[in-house]
Amino acid sequence: MRRGTVNRVLLGLVGLLLLVLGGAVLAVGLGAPPPHWWLHTGPHDVLLSNAERTRWRQAGWWWPTVIAALAVLVLLALWWLTAVLRRRRLTEVLVDTGDGEGALLRGRAMESALAAEAAHQQGVTHTETLLTGRRTTPAVRVWLQLEPDVDPGTALIDFTAEALTHARESAGLASLPAEVQLRAVKHRAERVT
User: Fold this and answer.
1) How far, in Å, CA of 4 to CA of 170, rounded?
2) Is the pLDDT of residue 69 over 90?
3) What are the residue ranges spanned by the domains of the chain?
4) Does domain 92-184 have CATH number 3.30.70.1350?
């Protein structure tokens, strides 16, 4: 859950930085007076002067290193883009209705039904669910927050026997693999008098 927030914040910061930098370059290129910290003096100034461009000509390692670093940067940006665009949440589940057609069950509906049933379980204070996988073979990730005095083994058995089994049977699935993470609610120490 936090990974999506971090990706959005990083993407927003990079986008804001590129927008400000591109806007400043455009403004100076259109004739606006450059700020005092600007690298170039005006719209007709070149990005790299002749001296800057030929300074490293004698070192045979300079340009291959620059090109390799830029290539690595482009590959990292493409990897990040594919990681951000890849869907982690399953949007729909194909339910076998027996007529050969099948029906589509919304993934969010299945997640919320599973979370609601798990929340009614004794000793569970908060639940989060995430449906992953393919629409014909879904899997589920579940986070259960337990009260401090609840046995985790019993809570897991109850979740598997009740909520997970009901979700699997109601969707007509042969199996519904689940990854369950259990956490206890933090509480203050009790005073003994």
Assistant:
1) 30
2) yes
3) 1-45, 92-184
4) yes
